[in-house]
What does this fold into?
Amino acid sequence: MPLEHMRMATVLPATERRQAGQSLRKIVPRSAHAQWTPASGRADPVDILVESGRHRIASLLPIRYDRMRASPFAFYRGAAAIMAADLANTPMTGLWVQACGDCHLANFGTFASPEGTPVFDVNDFDETLPAPFEWDVKR
It folds into this structure.
């Protein structure tokens, strides 16, 4: 990941953030996210799973793969590396966030800010990583 994505962001007023986001639509229009076409030279998904397995406990891999075979949902849940490889070739605005990595409603909740203000936000960061915001939306 480029270092420029790791520096502290300057927080602009909401109106300026909105304008900046809208101006990015000229570069990456919302319609650019409507369809997915596999990249030429796309890595074989099985090869991606094999590679990710090299960093896991070998004796547990058969259990992992059995669980992934249970349903399409289970497969996609266990195949985040495949999706990350595919998303890396999709249109991106360049807006990076600390992505949840598993952005669905069950990973949101309410909690109090340090000032005591109630907040509704992501509360499950076990799969978090710096990434383009589009990845969380598409995942």
Summary: The radius of gyration is 18 Å.
